[in-house]
Amino acid sequence: MSFRNISYFIFSLNRCSIGICYEGRLDADGKPSDTRTMEQRVALLELLWKLHRLFPQALVVGHRELPGVKKACPCFDCEEYREVFH
């Protein structure tokens, strides 16, 4: 993993955050929905464990939980991950 490039997720937090994207988020009607497959759930958990080892004090939050964000993403409740990592 390389952390040299700054991503553009949250303007005020780009320098001190890691954004994770996944394919999905919309149901058949185009509405925000938790569409993660089991494979995506497993891969995300594995990635979060790797990142947790590197950044044990990091917080796991969804894009929509950050100040000033008016988006539905990630379309699932990140609490399931906070319970594991915090």
TrEMBL record:
Q: Which domain of life is it from?
A: Bacteria
Question: Which positions fall inside the N-acetylmuramoyl-L-alanine amidase domain?
Answer: 12-74
Q: From which residue to which does the signal peptide run? A: none
Please name the Pfam families in this protein's record. Amidase_2 (PF01510)
Q: SUPFAM superfamilies in the record, alphabetically?
A: N-acetylmuramoyl-L-alanine amidase-like
A single GO BP: peptidoglycan catabolic process
GO MF term set: N-acetylmuramoyl-L-alanine amidase activity
**Name this polypeptide is given:** N-acetylmuramoyl-L-alanine amidase domain-containing protein
**Which species is the source of this protein?**
Bacteroides stercorirosoris
